[in-house]
Amino acid sequence: MRALNLKLLRDLWHVKGQVIAVALVIASGIATLSMALTTLESLQKTSEQYYSDYQFADAFVSAVRVPNAVKQRLESINGVSLVETRIKKFASLDMPDFNEPVMGLLTSIPDQGQPRLNQLALREGRWIAPGTSDEVIVNEPFAEAHNLKLGDKLSAVMNGKKRYFRIVGIALSPEYIYSIAPGSLMPDDARYGILWSGQSSLEAAFDLKGAFNDVAFKFDSTSDHQALLKQIDMVLEPYGGRNSYLRDDQISYWFVNNEIQQLKTTSIIFPVIFLLVSAFLTNMVLSRMITNEREQIGLLKAFGYSNLQVGAHYFKMVLVMCFVGAVIGLVAGAYLGQANTEMYAEFFRFPLLVYDFSFVSFIASSGVSVLAALSGIIGSIARVVQLPPAVAMVPPSPDIYHKSFVDTPYIKHWLDQPTRIAVRQIIRKPLRASFTVIGISLAVGLMVLAIQMSDAIKYLGISFFNDAQRQDMTMAFYENQKQEALYQVKRLPGVIDAEPIRYVSVEFINGTKTHRGSITGLESDATLQPIYDTYTQQVVALPEEGMVIGSILAEKLNIGVGDRIYVEFLDKSGLQRDYAVVGIFDTFIGLPAYMNLKTLNRELGEVGQYFMLNLVVDSQHYEQLYQAVKESPAITALMTKQSLLDAFNETVAESMLVFMFIFIVLSSILVFGVSYNMIRISLSERGRELATLRVLGFTKGETSYILLCEVGLLTLVGLALGCFVGWGLTQLLGYAFETELFRIPIIIYPHTYSYAVIVAIIASVVSALFVVKRIQHLDLIEVLKTKE
Hints:
The protein has 22 helices and 22 strands. Strand 7 (153-158) and strand 8 form a beta hairpin. The chain starts with a helix and ends with a helix.
């Protein structure tokens, strides 16, 4: 066996280019799955550790004003292990470096030290000093957005009065991984910040001496959490607290959960498709390589090596290629996994990182690749070793050829002889040509799938923020306003039009299926934020009675048009209604439900109430409007549509597109590996034929052209087919990307196909340049000999 091992080393060195190309194909599949699952597992463990170490609460509830004495009643509820009372109030912040109004959420912490629940990860500075009323700790994203430092001063309008604070600490909190302002869909750290101040300071500022208006709870792990929520609501109902909810419905936790769920879909479906495609391509390439070794296998048998020894020799060759690919995949997967995990940890601003390389995914992906590679050579080796040595050493008998359409006078007139030879070779070897086309098309299809994600994100932003929202700005208030405030807003500088909008927290119920969300109240003739169906790309009419809901909410509740949906209003004690579903529409973001604003107010026993206004504003008067809003204590925020789109791009788009960029790079490597192997194997299969043509008088250029023309024609077909494959994979993947947070549109822009095709062409050209050099230096005598 020593001689065979030496031969193995010589053969591997002789085909080192193909070894590297095959290894890259294998490595790309292994690295993709390892990176994705490593990122997913690390993020899940990091978030769980963060929530555990900093005592993230199990449940929350807000009220109006609750005496401190009620805390004992909450603590006495069987199953409640810890109660943290606090004050949470909104304030308007005046940031000197920022023209637009800024909303702040002030949350109380003990006058000394950490709270027991939802503890802070202090990044800089110190805790609030006991007895002080002008010190605050700010959340790190807000501090970075405004370049705030320790010792800087902030001014805030609180309860109609302006107060000044000094920053003594910068911190993170598990409660505000995503800090989202009321009425917003995405975090916007420049326009919304979280501030923590001492309990006594906020009690004095908001006239809550001896009282609180917000509570966080820790429950026993064995308790019935839903039953505990009902008991909490009963205790707090006299004080305006009847909307307790679990951490699953806490907005930051819900957003993070949806992001990780989205990443889970990306980390499983996309890499598995990638791995299976790379395994198929490895199988196809190696089967052709081994078939091309027919004469050497016959010669080995003639020297007395058994079928088992010969088979083992080629199995070793493939295992070496797989080993090289696995090592590259391991290194690349570990590096990319750590880099990707650190990127997401920075994105989520976790104060800690639990990195855990997924050896399970590495072993699984390596196993799939090795099995695919070995299965690709088993059939080829079995067919050859069954032949007697004398037969195996003789080149395969030429196929029986017949005249084809390329031999007609008309075709001969238009095609020269080298081109006709290339076309004949494709026609006479349809199976081999088909595999080449399939290999190229799968590689291109993966490239289209990877690039398409940027198209989807771009289209989602355009659809939601341009087509479905036609306002320039959205104005939010501290509390619901009446019709008189609408007239006052219309008199502000630059305001051309204003339309009211209201959000009401509700529980949707249909039998055993429930969903906690909100109803959006709009005027029936609303034009600035109409109900926009992304499937029909039409505005949906809002009738006077009944509800119009999103299709994902309809699916979750198993409800259709004409059915009635039971609604429990969480902010109104005992108010329960059922409404007819009069329309269902498609949307990319959230689980919306709409009602006529007048009808909604009537059900709540109120007249003309709204919480926000959509505005059309003259762009020449933005600065004057910002200044007017800063001077109004009733207005908490003024958000431009562009700022909402920017926030969307910074949250959803950036995190996903970075992930997709890695897939694009790996797809490019896969395309190159497939292209090089296809051309290199074609040269090996046709080396004798090309040398014969040289002997017959063909020039080096003509022989190179014959091979490259054949491969080029097959590549062109593969490119066209690859675009269809990419479209099909996009359709398959699109349905798997549905979460409650957002859905990925199934759309591919023309430039995506162009980019994928260009990358494939470049890979083919680079591969061809490597192979042309070999064709130019063919040793005619050596090639025409039988290899020994």
